[in-house]
Design a protein that fits this description.
about 575 residues; elongated; Serine Threonine Protein Phosphatase 5, Tetratricopeptide repeat
C-alpha cells in the first residue's frame, strides 16, 4: 500500500513539475513574442508567479527594454520600462549566471541607464566582458561586444582598452564565413573612433590576408601611408615564410612520389612569391624578405614545378613555359646540367628526331640548355644546322625559330665572331624574334666593329621598336584602386619616368603606387602635378603598373627618357 502511494505521489509530482516547466516555457514564449512586438504586452507576461525559468525573465526584460527604447521621449513610461527590465535581467542572471546573451543584453540596458544617469550597481563594460568570456567560440557575441566597445573607445580606461584589443584580435583571428565583412566594419569603427595606428597594430592578427586588407583600407582612405607600407611589408614577410613551407611540402610530396600534390604545393609557393613587391624597401623598420633566400627559393620552386610536371607525364610542349621560367631563374651551370639530364632521361632533347627531320621543340630546348652551360660552339653548330635546312612551320611557331637564331647570334657574340653573330641576328629578325631586343644586340656588335654609319640607321629602327618617349594619356581617367598597366619595350638602361597630372592640386592629395616589373618603385602622396622617378629597365619587355589608391585622377602624359 505504501509503495503504491509512493508511486502515485511520484507520478503526481512529476506531472506537476512537467506542468510547471510547460507553463514557464509558455510564459517565456509569450514574453519573446512581446519582445518581437507580437501578442501580450511586455509587462503582462508571466504574471507575478515565481517561475524558475531564466528564459522567461530574460525575454520579459528584452521586451521591456525594447518598449522603453521605443518611447524615449515619454520619460515616465520609459523610466518604468527600464526599471522593470533591470529587475528582470537581474532575476534572469540570478537563475542562470552563465548566460552570455543575458549578460550582453543586460550590458546594453546598462549603457542606456548610464547615458540617462540612472543609478545602477553594475557597469555595462563588466557585463560585456562577462558576455565575451562566456561566449567561447561564439563569434557573433564577441563581434557585437567588440563593435560596441570600439565605438566607445575614447571613454574607456587603459585596462578596458587592452581588453578590447585582445577580444578584437581574437575575433579577427577566427576564420569562417563573414570574416572579411567583420574586418571591414572593425576598420571603419577604428577610423571613426580611434585613429591610432599603434592600436591597429595591436588588434590585427599576424596574418597576411588580414594585413593586406587593412593596408587596402588605409590606402583607399588615403590615411596613415607609413602604417600601410608597414602592413604590406609584414604581410610579404609572412607570405615568404609560407612559401618556404609550401615548397618544403612540395619537395616531400615529390619524393613520395605524389607529383600532382607536389605541383599543387609548388604552384602555391610560386603564387606567394610572385605577390611579393618588396615593400620593405619603403618600410625599412619591418623584418625584410631576405633577397638571397628569395632568389634561391624561386629557383627551387620553378625547378620543382617542372620536375613534378614531367613526373606526372606532361610532354615537352606542355611544360615549355615552366621550362623557360626555370631556366631564366637559374644563373648556374649545375642546375642547367641537371635539367639536361632530366630531359635526356625522358628522351625530350636530341639533335634530330628519328625521322631525320628537325624536331624544332627538342632542338630549341637543347640549344637553351647548351647556352646556359656555356657550350657556345655547340649552339653555333645547331644554328648552322638550322640554316642548312628548309624550314616549314606554322606561323605561330615562327618566333621559336627566331629565338633559336637569336641564341646562335648570342653564342657567336660570346665567341667574338661578330660578323657571324650579325648574320644570325638578321635571320632571327626574319623569323619573328623580338625585334627591339635583337636590334639592340646588333647595335652592340656594330659598336665593337666601329660601324658608325650602320649604327645611325639601326638606332632609328631601334627607337621605332621601343616604347615612345612620350605617351599621351589626356583622354583617360584612372579610378581609385584600379591599376593602369602598360608593357614597355626598353633598352637595358636607367630610365627617368615622368608623369604629369591635370588635377593633382584639386581635392585631396593623390596617394600613388607605382610598380615596375613586379617590384614597388614608389608609393606616396604626390605634392605637385609632375613626378619624376628613375628605375633600371630590363632589356626588352618591362611591365609598369600605376594605381591611384585613394581617389581618381586625370593623367596628361607619361615621358620615358634614358638617364644620362
Amino acid at each position: 500500500m505504501i509503495k503504491r502511494f509512493g508511486r502515485g505521489f511520484g507520478l503526481l509530482l512529476a506531472a506537476a513539475l512537467c506542468l510547471y516547466v510547460y507553463l514557464g516555457e509558455r510564459a517565456a514564449g509569450r514574453a519573446r513574442n512581446a519582445a518581437l512586438g507580437e501578442g501580450t504586452a511586455a509587462g503582462e507576461t508571466g504574471g507575478r508567479f515565481p517561475w524558475l525559468n531564466d528564459g522567461l525573465y530574460h525575454a520579459r526584460a528584452n521586451a521591456l527594454f525594447k518598449s522603453g527604447v521605443g518611447r524615449l521621449g515619454e520619460v515616465e513610461e520609459r523610466d518604468a520600462d527600464f526599471r522593470l527590465a533591470y529587475r528582470n535581467y537581474v532575476r534572469s542572471l540570478d537563475l542562470h549566471p552563465f548566460s552570455p546573451t543575458a549578460h550582453f543584453d543586460f550590458g546594453q540596458l546598462l549603457q542606456y541607464l548610464n547615458a540617462l544617469d540612472f543609478p545602477a550597481a553594475e557597469r555595462y563594460f563588466d557585463e560585456y566582458r562577462k558576455a565575451a568570456a562566456l561566449s567561447g567560440v561564439d563569434t557573433l557575441i564577441n563581434f557585437e561586444v567588440g563593435k560596441i566597445l570600439l565605438a566607445r573607445w575614447p571613454s574607456l580606461s587603459p585596462g578596458e582598452r587592452r581588453f578590447v584589443e585582445d577580444i578584437t584580435r581574437s575575433l579577427l583571428s577566427a576564420g569562417g564565413p563573414g570574416r572579411e565583412e567583420r574586418l571591414d566594419l572593425i576598420l571603419s569603427l577604428w577610423e571613426i573612433n580611434v585613429r591610432d595606428t599603434a592600436v591597429l597594430e595591436e588588434i590585427l592578427p599576424p596574418e597576411s590576408d588580414v594585413l593586406r586588407r587593412a593596408a587596402g583600407f588605409l590606402g583607399g582612405k588615403g590615411i596613415f601611408p607609413a602604417a600601410r607600407l608597414g602592413f604590406l611589408a609584414e604581410a610579404e614577410h609572412l607570405d615568404f615564410r609560407r612559401a618556404v613551407r609550401e615548397a618544403q611540402a612540395g619537395l616531400i610530396a615529390s619524393h613520395a612520389p605524389r607529383p600532382d600534390e607536389s605541383i599543387q604545393h609548388y604552384r602555391a609557393a610560386r603564387t606567394l612569391l610572385e605577390g611579393i613587391r618588396f615593400y620593405q624597401r619603403l618600410s625599412p623598420k619591418t623584418e625584410p624578405v631576405p633577397a638571397e633566400e628569395y632568389g634561391k627559393l624561386a629557383k627551387a620552386v620553378h625547378l620543382g614545378i617542372l620536375k613534378s610536371r614531367l613526373a606526372a607525364g606532361a610532354d615537352l610542349r606542355a611544360v615549355h613555359d615552366d621550362f623557360r621560367k626555370a631556366l631564366d631563374a637559374e644563373d648556374g651551370v649545375g642546375a642547367a646540367a641537371e635539367l639536361e639530364s632530366l630531359f635526356k632521361s625522358r628522351e625530350m632533347v636530341e639533335d634530330r628526331s628519328r625521322s631525320g627531320l628537325l624536331d624544332i621543340e627538342r632542338l630549341g630546348v637543347s640549344m637553351e640548355l647548351a647556352f646556359k652551360q656555356n657550350r657556345f660552339r655547340e649552339v653555333v653548330q645547331t644554328g648552322q644546322t638550322l640554316r642548312q635546312n628548309l624550314l616549314v612551320v606554322p606561323d605561330e611557331r615562327r618566333p621559336w625559330i627566331g629565338r633559336m637564331y637569336e641564341l646562335a647570334g648570342d653564342a657567336c657574340q660570346r665567341l667574338d665572331d661578330l660578323y657571324e653573330s650579325n648574320a644570325y641576328y638578321e635571320k632571327a629578325l626574319e623569323w619573328g624574334a623580338e625585334a627591339a631586343v635583337v636590334r639592340i644586340k646588333l647595335r652592340r656588335n656594330y659598336e665593337r666593329l666601329n660601324m658608325a654609319r650602320d649604327i645611325i640607321d639601326l638606332q632609328k629602327q631601334i627607337e621605332a621598336g621601343l616604347t615612345p618617349r612620350e605617351t599621351w594619356l589626356g583622354d583617360s581617367i584612372w579610378m581609385a584602386g584600379e591599376a593602369f598597366s602598360k608593357d614597355l619595350v626598353l633598352d637595358e638602361k636607367i630610365y627617368r619616368l615622368e608623369l604629369e597630372f591635370s588635377d593633382a592640386a584639386a581635392g585631396p592629395s593623390i596617394l600613388l603606387s607605382i610598380v615596375i616589373n613586379g617590384k614597388i618603385l614608389f608609393e606616396d602622396f604626390i605634392s605637385s602635378s609632375v613626378i619624376d622617378l628613375e628605375f633600371p629597365a630590363a632589356l626588352g619587355r618591362n611591365t609598369l603598373n600605376i594605381t591611384p589608391l585613394n581617389r581618381f585622377c586625370r593623367p596628361i602624359k607619361m615621358i620615358l627618357i634614358p638617364a644620362e
